[in-house]
Amino acid sequence: MELILALAIGVLGGSGVWLLMRPRTFQLIIGLSLLSYAVNLFIFSMGRFPVGAPPVLAPGTSGDPAVFADPLPQALVLTAIVIGFATTALFLVVMLAARGLTGGDHVDGKGRGS
Amino acid sequence: MQHLGIASIILPLLVGAIMIPLEDQKGHWRAALGITSTVLLLAIAITLAWQAHLGGGGEGLVSVYRLGNWPAIFGIVLVVDRLSALMLVLTAVLGLSSLVFSLARWQRMGAHFHALFQFQLMGLNGAFLTGDLFNLFVFFEVLLAASYGLALHGSGVARVKAGLHYIAINLAASLLFLIGVSMIYGVAGTLNMADLAARIPEIPLENRPLLEAGAGILGLAFLVKAGMWPLGFWLPRTYSAVSPPAAAIFSMMSKVGVYAILRLSLLLFSNDAGDSVGFGGTWILAGGILTIGFGAVSVLATQDLSRLAGASVLISSGTLLAAVGAEQVAVTSGALFYLATSALSIGALFLLIELLERGRDVGADVLAVTLEAFGDGDDDDDDETDEIGVAIPATMAVLGLSFLCCALLLAGLPPLSGFVAKFAMLSGILNPEGLGGRVASVSPGGWALLVALVLSGLATVLAMTRAGIRSLWATSSRSVPRVGVIEIAPVLLLLSLCVGMTIGAGPMLRYTHAAAEALHAPRDYIRNVIGQNP
């Protein structure tokens, strides 16, 4: 389980960083999205892996932290997803504006797409 | 009175939210709402600073606001101490000045300027007040989202291109922020800053590298905002491309990064932190000095006034970071004074530049400097010698005097407060125990910082003098810019505040010294935030 998750984060993060270095805005935004998936999974993994454990107390049980999943990383991931989604949407608009103004999708606004 | 802290976040949020659906063709209502809200924010900030400095029987007060009255480790807390109150006052002053400036023309250059501006203020205030790492992330995103809008305000190819880079680099930095925060949570199990500082000494040795890696990654996210070399190449380009009112408030935004570094490095890695004492201090010192060097070179190399202002933001950030890295109470105190001075004077410079550049050809500066380089500039001087005694128009006199003040403040020359700030930092490096105390040996880092400070001042003087001669005294045919009172008033307000800080340097330095002492001995902060659970 740990290995699969670590590999998934690594592959997503690696592809994201590679795309981030590319000169086209579309590659840039896909790279940022992949990176944000990797980071979200990473935050999630920081709450350890109690498989099948509920994050809230069941009725009539008292708190034994070993039995429950840590709810805080889940809340953090939720916030991070919402914020990341909104900023990506905003970035998309700026990308379109840049494309309209410079006539190409190069990040420095040079030349037309090859 | 106890709700004042949260009011400085809620007020701009509500006002900004009301502005969006408001039916208002001419923009008068929005302007009135914006100004009212910002004036109120200023009043709140001054009250908070007053309380933080003089409350609690003269000892100073760390007031903690618990949202929903949850105990600090579980709930969200806002913490007002001297440092955050000072930052709130600076934000409100700069906000008010650039908002008044924008009323003349810039507010009409695009949609929702006033709403975005209020959200920007909300994000800044929240980032300065919050006592929780994840909330810091949320407020960072709020202020960044608003700043993306403000950066693009007025549109145009240059702004959109610079904005694209700005947004991309900040999105990447936010991801670093998240990685750092989650690593720290994974090791320490808390994100409340005070609780974290209390738990760090007990973290077992084998987990420490992970914690320090997390703190390092988190620090990178802040250093990108502060523009530390080599993370700050985006900064001069973006700051010179955005509209002047936005640039003035952005000069506060680069201070957010410095604030976060200052707060966290001194709180988390204070002398109680066990094996991690002073983690990263040397790196911040070295990075700060490199940033000063890079800023000084780019100040000299630049041919354009707005780029010059952007490069002085880099020098200011570098100076602050290096002073934080020096980790001495006296230096930190001087640095806080410098922070106030440089935020106000750079804000004034950004506003002033737009007034100076009005009514002149685009690229005139570039041409002037290039001509100078080829020794071909002022051949036509001789023709005009018969015009001795031409009256300087009043507008040019005011603009010139303001530019002179900005130059003195940024370079740190007497008699203005920039000099007091640099003097306080230098004397802190040389005499850590105050004048007349034991003569202490100065570390190599201290010497390097001293040299960097003095040389960066020299570079600023050279660059500002050249720019001033070219834009104010040059004989090129140019019309006197038409400047409204409403545009020059904010510049004069900011500069007169700097003059006020020069005159009131004693009380102001007492304030910053008390703030620095509290930062270097964070036990009070921790006890106030965690203790007294209901």
Describe this structure in words.
- The complex is a heterodimer of chains A (114) and B (534).
- With 114 residues, chain A is mostly helical.
- Chain A has one domain (2-50, 70-102): Orthogonal Bundle (Helix Hairpins), CATH 1.10.287.
- Helix content of chain A is 63%, strand content 0%.
- The N and C termini of chain A lie far apart (42 Å).
- Chain B contains 20 helices and two strands.
- Chain B has a two-stranded antiparallel ribbon with strand order 1-2.
- The longest helix of chain B is centred in the N-terminal third of the chain and has 32 residues, at 157-188.
- Chain B starts with a helix and ends with a helix.
- Chain A binds chain B through residues 20, 25, 28, 32, 35-36, 39, 42-43, 46-47, 72-73, 76, 79-80, 83-84, 86-88, 90-91, 94-95, 97-98, 101-102, 107-109, and chain B through 134, 138, 141, 144-145, 148, 152, 155-157, 160-161, 163-165, 167-168, 171-172, 174-175, 178-179, 181-183, 185-186, 191.
- Chain A: This is Na+/H+ antiporter subunit C.
A few lines on this structure:
Chain A: It comes from Teichococcus aerophilus. With 114 residues, chain A is mainly α. Chain A has one domain (2-50, 70-102): Orthogonal Bundle (Helix Hairpins).
How helix-rich are the residues of chain A, as a percent range?
Answer: 55-70%
* N to C succession of SSEs of chain A: HHH
Low-confidence stretches of chain B: 377-388
Order of helices and strands of chain B: HHEEHHHHHHHHHHHHHHHHHH
- Summarize the largest interface: chains and residue counts: A-B, 32 and 29 residues
Parts with pLDDT < 50 across at least 5 consecutive residues of chain A:
none
CATH topology of chain A: Helix Hairpins
β-strand percent of chain A reads under 5%
Based on CA atoms alone, the radius of gyration of chain B comes out at 23 Å
**Main sheet record of chain B:** 2 strands, antiparallel
Shape of chain B: globular
Distance between the termini of chain B: 19 Å
| CATH class term of chain A | Mainly Alpha
Radius of gyration of chain A from the CA trace?
Answer: 19 Å
Average pLDDT over all residues of chain A: 84
* Percentage of β-strand residues of chain B: under 5%
InterPro entries (chain A): CPA3_antiporter_subunitC, NUOK/Mnh_C1-like
Family (chain A): Belongs to the CPA3 antiporters (TC 2.A.63) subunit C family.
Protein name (chain A): Na+/H+ antiporter subunit C
Organism (chain A): Teichococcus aerophilus
